[in-house]
Amino acid sequence: MFLVEHVKALYRLLNHLYKSEVRILGGNYPLCIHVGDEGEFIKVAEKWNGKRNIYVGIRDRSEKVRRCATMWDIVAIQTIVIDLDPQRPKDIPSTDEELKKAIDVAQHIADWFKGNGYKEPYIAVTGNGTQLFFSIPRVDVEDKNRYVLQDKLQNFEIFLRRKFKDELKKKGVILDSMYDLPRITRVIGTLNVKGKEMPGRTRRCSKWLILPTERREDSRLKEFIFGSI
């Protein structure tokens, strides 16, 4: 399965100023491919769909980078992704019940943000868990603020773990770390081929719960996370 409209929605949501870094993982060797437009992004994703796991850099890479980015290649933050994974044995897909718990937690967190005056994040099902996508006005990353901004992203995750501690514990869901600047995320709309299939634990295609139609840039969330910068 390949959900082209879901792939398009991710590309538009990330809103990269420069080329997007696509990583093809699994198999004997990883690939790092830099694509310059939506059509190229879709073409690469479709080529590798079902064969390997396909990821893309969340934050803007320098226009000069031609390899897999490090933190020193990141030039802007415009999207924040929160990753929720149900507890389960290692290296196997989640059951429908486990996945539902991750969806429930994601919706609970999204509802909290919406109810407290923030823009509602989009929710994606990654295949085994869920992710929340928050859009903010562009924050420029320079050498003088690189570590400070990364620390603030980490503090935001710490806040969420504390704020939703009871819900995470009740549902058996882990909020994984995604704060490092060069972090990648699954290309939504592609098949998750991670883990060995077994009865009740099958691979799934990643998808949006509600297909994004626009970036909901949240200036208030930017201020909450980064303060005056």
Explain the overall architecture:
The chain is globular and about 50 Å long. Helices cover 33% and strands 24% of the residues. The protein is α+β, with helices and mostly antiparallel strands. The longest helix is centred in the middle third of the chain and has 20 residues, at 96-115. Helix 1 (4-14) packs across helix 2. It has a single domain (4-226), classed as DNA primase, PRIM domain (Alpha-Beta Complex), CATH 3.90.920. The strands form two sheets. Strands 4, 5, 6, 7, 8 and 10 form a six-stranded antiparallel β-sheet that branches. The protein has a four-stranded antiparallel β-sheet with strand order 2-1-3-9, covered by helices on one side. The chain has six helices and ten strands.
The biggest sheet amounts to: 6 strands, antiparallel
Q: What radius of gyration results from the CA coordinates? A: 17 Å
Q: What's the CATH topology name?
A: DNA primase, PRIM domain
Instruction: Please name the CATH architecture.
Output: Alpha-Beta Complex
Task: Give the SSE map.
Blueprint (H helix, E strand, L loop, with lengths): L3 H11 L5 E6 L5 E5 L2 H11 L4 E5 L2 E2 L12 E13 L9 H20 L6 E4 L4 E11 L5 H18 L1 H7 L1 E4 L7 E3 L20 E2 L10 H8 L3
Antiparallel strand pairs: 1-2, 1-3, 3-9, 4-5, 5-7, 5-8, 6-7, 6-10
Helix pairs in contact: 1-2
